[in-house]
Amino acid sequence: MNSYIKKYTKKELIEDTGRVSWTSPSNIALIKYWGKHGKQLPCNPSISFTLNESKTTMDFSWSIKDGGKDEIVLDFYFENKKNEAFENKIRKFLEDNFELFPFLKYLSLEIESTNSFPHSAGIASSASSMSALALGLCTIEDQAFDLNQSEEEILDKATYIARLASGSASRSVFPGIVSWGKSDLEDIKSTDEKAATVEGIADVFKTYQDSIVIVDAGEKAVSSRAGHALMEAHPFRDVRFKHANDQLALLVEVMKSGDVDQFCEIVETEALELHGLMMNSSPSYTLMRPNTLAVIEKIRAFRSETGLPICFTLDAGPNVHILYPESIKNEINEFMINELTPLAQGGLIIHDKVGSGPERFL
After folding, report:
1. What element of type H or E holds 271?
2. 3-state DSSP percent of the chain in helix, strand and coil, to 5
3. Are 194 and 207 within one domain?
4. Burial of 295 (0-12, 13-18, 19+ CB in 10 A)
5. Angle at 176 between CA 309 and CA 275, to 5 degrees
6. Residue 185 is inside which H or E element, if any?
7. What is the pLDDT of residue 1?
């Protein structure tokens, strides 16, 4: 039996009304997970920076409901407006995983969600929102039924639940440098079901900066879910998964040693390999845009001219994440203002950095 599945009776309900509020960040993968199997399990391990400024805040209110029917009573608001599309998505997730949330047969939920970044800005809002959702649900369970769980126990279940909602969301439950997926490496404590913080990383990476050049704020032509599915019959499937494991092992050693130059090489290779997999899948698709390539060329030219350890990575979209040590922040900001702002849609560049993880307010 799944250890996260608990049985409750209405008599065990200690608090029949209450409020909980969590803020949870997005993250940017350095080694990408691309392809999944089973119930939201990754075909290869991944590693990411948890961000600091790009966050979702979710306020949860609950009250006791009449009867004990197995139905979800939910009202969802996004940016202070009723959002039926998001509400239906969350309701379906809760219904599909009802055995993990049996307390919902006794409670009605109201959720108010806001993002610190534009929803269409190309930052992984599913990672921040679904991790916030998981943290809220786990806290409501603990509080309403007086389970007296430790913070570690709540985070352990939250990363498991977040992964079911959105794979990358499992990493957003933890601060700093986080892995998700099974690996033979001693430093990787994550499993296919849960993420974990990677220890022993050099200090330079704990304050790394991430500036996101918004090349195109529109919706992607192909969803990440569809992209993952195309890996099932991809001609380079097995090669990719082996290479991802090899790259992860190399990156962990590089990040432990503090070698920022080799970090740049690995991270950029990973970003381009991800998009290469999209371009030679069947059907093929391209998410990069002309200005994506223009930004990449500007970064490479600047690095060649200055010798500064600036590099790029890409998510499954057209926008460019620029990664660099905090010590060269002023030089990079000047470069971005002069060279990259004209290539960004509306001149939008969002500045972020490695962060300290989710935070509970209520």
Report:
1. helix 260-279
2. 45, 25, 35
3. no
4. buried
5. 60
6. none
7. 45
Q: Is the peptide bond before 45 cis (omega within 30 degrees of 0)?
A: no
Please state, in angstroms and rounded to a whole number, the distance separating the CA atoms of residues 349 and 343.
Answer: 10
Beta pairing partners, 19: 61
User: Which tens digit of pLDDT belongs to each residue from 204-256?
Assistant: 999 999 999 999 988 777 888 889 999 999 999 999 999 999 999 999 999 99
The confidence score (pLDDT) of residue 119 equals 66
Same domain, 193 and 207: no
CB hemisphere CA count around 145 (13 angstroms): 21
Mind listing the pLDDT tens digit for each residue in 255-303?
999 999 999 999 999 999 999 999 999 999 999 999 999 999 999 999 9
Q: Which two tokens stand for residue 79?
A: 């940016």
Residue 237, class by beta-carbon neighbours within 10 Å (0-12 exposed, 13-18 middle, 19+ buried)? middle
CATH code of residue 104: 3.30.230.10
pTM: 0.95
Q: Is 222 helix (H, G, I), strand (E, B) or coil?
A: coil
